[in-house]
Amino acid sequence: MSALKIKKSPLIPMRSIIWLMLFTCTLVLYVLRTNMSLILIAMVNTTPSNATAAAVPECAVLNKDNSSISDNETSISTERRIGRKYSVTYGWDSRLQGLILGAYFWGFVLSNIPGAAVAERFGPRKSVAVSFALSALLTLLGPLCASWHPYWLIASRFLIGLFGGIVYPAVHCLISRWAPPAEKGKFISATLGGSLGTVVTWPLLGNVIEHVGWEWGFYISGILVLVWTFFWIVAVYDCPEKHPWIGSCEKDYIVNGLSGTLSSKKSIPPYKSILTSLPVWALGVAQFGNLWGLFFLMTAGPKFMSTVLGFDLGNTGFLAAVPYLARMLAGFVFGIIGDSIIRRGSISKSAIRKSFTVFSHIVPGLLLVGQTFVGCQATWVISLIALSLASNGASTITNLSNAQDLAPNFAGSLYGIVNCLGSTTGFLSPMLVGYLTADHNGMEEWHTIFYIGAIVYVFCGLFFAIFGSGEIQHWNRCEGDEDCPDVKPVRHGIDNRGFDGTTEDKV
């Protein structure tokens, strides 16, 4: 009978399809989030009045053997190198550019907490679909907004961020309903799709912009998002019980695995308990440090590559994306390691989460400091930044997993709260970069930026290592819900079998 059930099971487990859709969901989110960093370089003209942009890249002068810049090109203005193919450009200074880059994150921060409530009330499937559909339409209107006034572009980016703030809480809400305890790390690794989103977006848009103009950076982004949204609606459902394609064996395996941690009743999150919980604050601080390192390289990385190291726009997109590919691949490895350790049951979740902050926060901070010693050696600069973000891939088993540990019933809301705090780095870091590079955009200023990033990384990692926790909190219990018994920490050495005794690999 058991063998018969295995034969009747789908060839591809439904939770693998859900993982793929979660992965591409965060990928698409980062297409919308990161496209502006590259498009903006092409949108802004480089007249002599714009001192920061007009200056010949510092490393082009100091390091003439840079493989991307010939001796003759060192005397050519930045305008000719990256703006010669664009019929319309704008004279926006570095501070206005910082506002444009940061506008997305102002909206993103504001919607994280209410976005989590929306996802838990209406379901992550509908919430994500509506968010991306509206964001895609606003992206398609980007060139029109820019032609009216930069404030219209800022407003559109703000709204895209506002809708985007719903996505990560919805993703964590979906993970809490689909991921058996022994597969949490694997499912959390799906959130690293954003890294691939950066890897895909910058080289793709860099080449598109070089050949047909920056307007198509907006158009390509919007069209891709609309197409993906259709597939999301078709393939994803809010929980295994509602999915029409899932096999009964796999459905029972997931439901039984989550028994005792999830409630079937929709409840208002215990905000008072959440906001007075020290482990939650530790998670928020860890998330802040993680996103500081991630976002300042995301929003300012292309500018650093183009205006300081001196790479042309096509190379800038590719080279700025390489560290994010390293982060994604390392994140998968760390996720597998974390799941393996949890299955053995020899180390508590708290110990796992805290010990791996060495890789997710401390090492990346130290590598940013090391990067300041290599000067204009572009290969070393990019390599050390790549190693820093690769090590940060360990966040899949530290801060990115921790909301699922503390409160499975309210994982979406909890992640929304800590992500609200962490995402402030998305507008703080562009503002900092704009301020420090307003008068001069050279290595000295960027070294200061890297030092600040290193300090934030290390401090936040140490704070989480001291005050964080990996255990389910007492306020995860839903009052008056018979389906939510007294919460006990999930056994780390969880039996890896479905309801009929088959192993998860056969489900």
Overview of the molecule:
This protein has helices spanning 2-8, 14-43, 51-54, 58-62, 78-83, 94-122, 124-140, 142-148, 150-164, 167-178, 184-188, 193-212, 215-235, 248-258, 271-275, 278-309, 313-344, 349-355, 357-371, 378-391, 399-406, 411-422, 425-436, 443-467. The protein contains 24 helices and no strands.
Give a quick set of tags describing it.
globular, 24 helices
**Average predicted confidence as pLDDT:** 77
Class by alpha and beta content: mainly alpha
Radius of gyration, in Å, reads 23 Å
Secondary-structure element series: HHHHHHHHHHHHHHHHHHHHHHHH
Précis, in short:
By secondary structure, this protein is mainly alpha-helical. It is built from 24 helices and no strands.
What is the topology?
Blueprint: H1 2-8, H2 14-43, H3 51-54, H4 58-62, H5 78-83, H6 94-122, H7 124-140, H8 142-148, H9 150-164, H10 167-178, H11 184-188, H12 193-212, H13 215-235, H14 248-258, H15 271-275, H16 278-309, H17 313-344, H18 349-355, H19 357-371, H20 378-391, H21 399-406, H22 411-422, H23 425-436, H24 443-467
